[in-house]
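Tokens in:
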């Protein structure tokens, strides 16, 4: 398992014909639809389509959408094969305004392996989760394993210390309110430390 490194295509401009094509592939009733296409053996294109009549804010981090790839394991269960790495820098966090019927494009890696399965992408935006359509693909079974050194990353070590390994999974696998839950625990921890320092001074 590795981090997702999708990259928003800032040069992408949709045509009316392409908009109609994406509309035809948008199967869910969600306000945001993800349409997955395979470009070649190394890249997927993921189109984020605003199905509403209002503009929608799409959050990003250093020109990357909050996106990970999932696959069905040997038991037919959807599981992550990538995780998200949050930036510690506040300037990394940006947003785009997606107009009604607007389309934003990002690209992400195609994996190869010896296990044939189904692939989809998961987007976290405004504490809501959206899934793409599925495609056939190949991965290695080891990609379902969380890296043992994940807590070498300072922020994730802090999350596991303040919360739990389950909270860390919620955050790295882009579950709604995961980061909010951590921030509440972090605030409580800092308040507790401040109280202890105050008592020690007295």
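Residues out:
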């Amino acid at each position: 398992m590795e981090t997702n490194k999708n990259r928003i295509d800032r040069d992408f401009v949709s045509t009316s014909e392409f908009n109609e094509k994406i509309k035809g592939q948008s199967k869910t009733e969600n306000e945001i639809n993800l349409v997955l296409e395979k470009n070649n053996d190394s890249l997927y294109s993921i189109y984020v389509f605003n199905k509403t009549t209002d503009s929608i804010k799409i959050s990003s981090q250093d020109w990357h959408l909050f996106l990970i790839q999932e696959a069905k394991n040997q038991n037919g269960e959807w599981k992550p094969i990538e995780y998200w790495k949050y930036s510690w820098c506040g300037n990394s966090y940006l947003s785009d305004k997606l107009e009604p019927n607007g389309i934003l494009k990002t690209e992400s890696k195609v994996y190869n392996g010896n296990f044939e399965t189904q692939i989809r992408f998961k987007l976290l935006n405004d504490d809501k989760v959206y899934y793409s359509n599925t495609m056939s693909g190949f991965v290695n079974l080891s990609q379902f394993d969380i890296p043992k050194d994940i807590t070498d990353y300072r922020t994730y070590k802090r999350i596991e210390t303040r919360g739990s390994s389950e909270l860390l999974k919620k955050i790295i696998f882009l579950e709604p309110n995961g980061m909010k839950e951590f921030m509440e625990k972090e605030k409580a921890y800092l308040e507790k430390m401040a109280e202890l320092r105050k008592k020690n001074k007295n």
